[in-house]
Amino acid sequence: MRGRTLHRLLAGLALTLLLTSTAGSCGTVDNSAGGTGEQFDRRDGTPAAPGTLRVLASSELADMAPVLEEARKATGVTVRATYAGTLDAVEQIASGRAEKEYDAVWLSSNDYLRLRPDTARRITNETPVMTSPVALGVRPEAVTRLGWDPGKVTWSQLHQAVAAGKLTYGMTDPKRSNSGFAALVSVASGLSGAQSALSDGDVRKATPKLREFFTGQKLTSGSSGWLATAYGRREDVDALVNYESVLLSAPGALTVIRPSDGVVTADYPLTLLTAASAGAKETAQRLTTWLRTPEAQRRITETTLRRPVVAGVAPSPRLDRGLRRELPFPGSRSVADGLLDAYDNTLRRPSRTVYVLDTSGSMGGERLDRLKEALVELTGDFRDREEVTLMPFGSSVKTSEVRTYTVDPADPARARDAIRADAGKLSASGGTAVYSSLTEAYRSLGAAPRDTFTSVVLMTDGENTDGMPAGDFDAFFAALPAEQRRTPVFPILFGDSDREELEHIADLTGGRLFESAEGSLNGAFEEIRGYQ
User: Fold this and answer.
1) In this structure, are strands 239-243 and 265-266 parallel, antiparallel, or unpaired?
2) For residue 85, what is the DSSP state?
3) Residue 354 shares a structural domain with residue 487
4) What is the pTM for the complete model shown?
5) For residue range 459-475, what is the model confidence (pLDDT) as tens digits?
């Protein structure tokens, strides 16, 4: 990788992590003060200062910070951006919460948003700023092994390679990331042979091939940044499915393939909320006018490796100039939602998760109530075929309370009801044996079946006080078979837990640290779902 590209990637990842690493918190960044990336906690619904635009944005737009700083100098407009997954942002718009806290939204695409009457009526004045098609980034040695001409590969060829066990890949969760959803639409269109917008019949026709295609997915994620990092740790994964711009900035050399039978492209429209004030609308107009100038478009394509939308502006030399077939988005919400439901419950690999839950004495009272509440709410999100283990611990794992449940597609309520009932029985006692309990979680999982997404979620409100010390856990983890070392731990920072301790666990195992917002665990548990 070229030094300049690596520098840009590291800077972008650092900024992305700064903006998005906290679950359920603001992640709000002001592009003033030289683009320092200072975080603010201003989601109180108060009007923005004159010249400030409050924007709810897709998380990958963190790489626009240098461009937005230039916009501030040129126009006087300060963008205060709060980053979220695209489909999570749609839910904020639908609920009406977005219009109380923001003036505009800037998502990778408004296609899904427009399918919903409860969101479509809340937006106005959409201005596309740049584009990036969904593509496949493949290790060059895999391209050579498969004998592919990158310019002629089809979704059918990709499916055949996966079905034959010759290609594996990582992709973001379609329910939380538009890149994952756009990829899902692209492959469903390609494998169904649809000549127009996907229909329910097309999805049914493609389902057997889709099920085979998703056997090759070995990595899932709620964010593109973590997916790229996890991919760098996994020599057994051949490819990444993501936006072209993300793939070109990913670590390591990837051959970018845009399937010749069509892709879905993000157009990143800066979009006003209908409830925005007259001042905010004028501010947004100034910003979008500048972003579509030739100078700004050149800066965007050079900085982010996205494609310009203004005629006469050449894309970055690193972008393929060849024509591509653009696939239409599903024409109805029922098709889009049906595709998402099929992916979650039928097409993708099932999940297998151990929830290592701190029920030490310090968790008594309100903290334990919050844990129970979060677990009860989480049960509604468990997928068909998913295996869930609750492993409460204090001074050691409370073995008599450990329970494993599997969500049976024929009777999903049975497992969900059992989890709710057992969560309600949790009680607080003992010390805090973090590392001993994690060791038991790995032992209980054993060698992970190759057809599951396996992970450990650790929730604790304090630092390790009992059982195995950190060094012994590190040694235990290092001695695990390679396949078991691919099981990440996703710790949740809660109460008085030790950030440094939890960050070490996440880094060691290839996981990611999540934070509970204002003492609530609901958002953290929900965000982790994108990684399971």
Assistant:
1) unpaired
2) -
3) yes
4) 0.84
5) 999 899 999 999 999 99
Residue 1 — very low, low, confident or very high, per pLDDT cuts 50/70/90?
A: very low
Same domain? 169 vs 259: yes
Provide the token pair at 310: 């203004």
- Which H or E run contains 355? strand 351-358
Both 150 and 78 in one domain: the answer is no
Distances (CA, A) of 37 to 9, 79, 301: 16, 11, 21
| Domains held by the chain: number | 3
Domain of 366: which CATH number? 3.40.50.410
Determine if residue 312 is left, alpha or beta; phi over 0 gives left, psi from -120 to 50 gives alpha, anything else beta: left
Residue with token string 């006692």: 429
- How do residues 423-439 score in pLDDT, each as one tens digit? 999 999 999 999 999 99
Residues 211 and 175 in one domain: yes
177 inside domain: yes
The encoded tokens of residue 484 equal 């078991």
The DSSP bridge pattern shows strands 489-493 and 453-460 to be parallel
Q: Which domain holds residue 471?
A: 350-531
What is the 3 state secondary structure string of 286-313? HHHHHHCCHHHHHHHHHHHCCEECCCCC
Q: E strands of 161-318, at which residues?
A: 169-172, 217-221, 239-243, 255-257, 265-266, 269-273, 307-308
- State pLDDT tens for residues 34-46: 333 333 334 445 5
341 CB burial (10 A radius; 0-12, 13-18, 19+) = middle
- Average pLDDT over the chain reads 88
Q: Tell whether 481 and 411 lie within a shared domain.
A: yes
